[in-house]
Amino acid sequence: MASNERLRAVAVTEAVSLPCYWDLFDADGSWPKRGASCRAAAGITLDQLSWWARTLRDARNDYQWREQ
Hints:
- The protein has 68 residues and is mainly α.
- It has a domain at 25-62.
- The chain has 1 helix and no strands.
- It is elongated and about 55 Å long.
- The two termini are 18 Å apart.
């Protein structure tokens, strides 16, 4: 990255706290285990993050940013 390039980012204000995260893994190693209290919140946050990732990837492919 050239020294004159800037980082362009989008803030994601939601967060999921995972205290004692090791207790959230199932016996087979899958995460989060069924019934974990964070399951819904993590799913929503990861869905939003995935949406942003796809949207920004598509925008970068469709529109080339030009510096002034």
